[in-house]
Amino acid sequence: MTMQLLVVVLVLTLLLATVNALATPSSSITVVTGASGFVGRHVVYSLLSRHRRSTPSSTSITDDVSTVIHDSGSEVIVCLVRPNRVSYEESYWNAHLQEMDLTDDAQVCVKVLPYDMLDDGASLYDALQSGHQHHRTTCQSKSCSICVHHIASVFGPTSDPIQTAKDNVQSAEYVVRAMHQFQQQHCADIDADNKPMRLVLTSSMAAVRATNQTPLNGRYYTYRDWNTMSKLDDKNWGSCYQWSKAESERKALELVEKYNNGGSGLDMVALCPSFVFGPPPPFPSSFNVGDASNGSSSSYSLELVKQWLYGKSEVQSRLCADVRDVAQAHVAAGTIDISSTGDDTSYSKRYIVSTEERLSSELVAEALRRAIQNVQSTNDASKDVDMSNIICDTKFDGGAIKIGEREVEATERLQSDLGVVCRSVEDTMQNMAEALLQEGF
Q1: Could you tell me where the DSSP H helices lie in 211-269?
Q2: What CA–CA distances, in Å, run from 382 to 10, 165, 372?
Q3: Contact by Cβ (8 Å): 382, 441
Q4: Structural contact between residues 93 and 79, judged by C-beta atoms closer than 8 angstroms
Q5: Helix axes 323-333, 38-49, angle to 10 degrees
Q6: pLDDT in tens, 204-238
Q7: What is the share, in percent, of the chain residues with pLDDT greater than 70?
Q8: Three-state secondary structure along 100-124?
Q9: Are the beta carbons of 201 and 150 closer than 8 angstroms?
Q10: What confidence tier does 66 reach under pLDDT thresholds 50, 70, 90?
Q11: pTM for the full predicted model
Q12: Choosing a second label site near 350 at 20 to 30 A (CA), which of 228, 294, 369, 398?
């Protein structure tokens, strides 16, 4: 009888714990650096989309219905942007929140704060503090997960490419140190179920390989490959940037290992996208075209495709990642369990986010022409775009791995671990061109 009573007590205890767990919504603090950028805005939008009641009714090509995961609970999303962008981004995200059909139990808040990537981590620490304060004042549960998506970095030519590269590396180190400092000071305040704080680092294929670098397996690049060839060169900003992405990931990983503390400190997921294309982030319907143009996120790829559309430069063959897939990978990477992982460590995982083959410039050009045809059939503003002006670079053969051959191994790992299936290059390019033409960018 005593044994039976004990079994009943244990069962009731487990049931009560389950009911309490279900009754207590999950709570999270999510910080996104570079949140006003091309990738950053898409990541924030995908984070918000988890709280939607249903998939978007809009058929806009910038709406990524595949990221709608239907989450509930409390989440504060802190967007870190340049100081001169704070006011605009606040209006932008407030408008989105008013228009999104969020679930009844969703408690989501978007904060926009200034960010300086070279302030020794002070602005990131302040963002974590702000999220922590919001959690303490709005949530009954003490349990809270914390994730930082570090996306901010400088890409493109500058007056001092070597210093710019070093700044990119320094900013990644500052992020990890600030997270560690916050974790040390507030670990007693936040019960994260013994889970470490998570860093999702936007790395790059540039961290996987340098131009013309031979893959380790001699055939194609995998997440095990590292760029070992790019150097700091004041006459080559591209080489400096590639070096900075590899070094940033290495330094961040070293610090995360140092601060992991047996699984209760920090852990990290590095995402290595290839060249990021895709439509601009969606704008709230309350924003007019002028608002969109003045407040659009900057992106080298957006400018590049505009040049291709208007025949100002040759269409190129590039290894491609769709920005919507990159954003979806970020959201998934913030929550996956990385404690037991093949060749990765117990505190880190690494993913290439990319299609596996380059598409020829001719096929990219065909996708752009289809976009022009589609838009011109319904939009008079795009009539001045002459598809006959589109020209192709037919000289480039792909480099170390030829166009049309498998260049990276990514598909199976992305789908099995993160649930991400990369769009085709044709769809990405066509969607991107249609969005640019329709919105008047």
Answers
A1: 237-259
A2: 69, 39, 8
A3: no
A4: yes
A5: 60
A6: 999 999 988 999 999 999 999 999 999 999 889 99
A7: 80
A8: CCECCCEEEEEEEEECCCCCCCHHH
A9: yes
A10: very low
A11: 0.88
A12: 398
Contacts of 177 (CB under 8 A, 6+ apart): 120, 121, 255
Residue 104 pLDDT exceeds 80? no
Residue 194 has pLDDT above 50, yes or no: yes
- Comparing C-alpha atoms, which of 200, 93, 66, 101 is closest to residue 145? 200
- Distance (Å, whole) CA 429 – CA 306: 11
Percent of the chain residues topping a pLDDT of 90: 62
Contact predicate 29/74, CB 8 Å:
no
The answer to whether 75 and 48 are in contact (CB under 8 A) is: no
The Cα 279–Cα 324 span in angstroms is 8
Through-space distance between the first and last CA atoms of the chain, rounded to whole angstroms: 77
Nearest to 394 by CA among 360, 358, 429: 360
CA distance 347 to 316: 38
**Residue range 25-280+319-353, CATH number:** 3.40.50.720
Rounded Cα distance, 1 and 127, in Å: 56
Find out whether 329 and 351 touch, Cβ atoms under 8 Å: yes
Distance CA 316, CA 44 (A): 30
How far apart are alpha carbons 52 and 46 in whole angstroms? 10
C-alpha distance from residue 264 to each of 140, 195, 197 (Å): 23, 6, 8
- Tens-digit pLDDT profile for residues 248-303: 999 999 999 999 876 678 999 999 999 999 998 888 888 754 554 555 666 889 99
Classify burial at 13, counting beta carbons within 10 Å of its beta carbon; exposed 0-12, middle 13-18, buried 19 or more.
Answer: exposed
Phi, psi torsion values for 307, nearest 5 degrees: -60, -40
Residue type, 382: S
Six-digit token string for 184: 């040390």
- Please enumerate in sequence order all residues whose Cβ is within 8 A of that of 437, keeping only pairs 6 or more positions apart, or say none: 309, 371, 372, 375, 379, 382, 385
CA-CA-CA-CA torsion sign (124, 126, 130, 132): positive
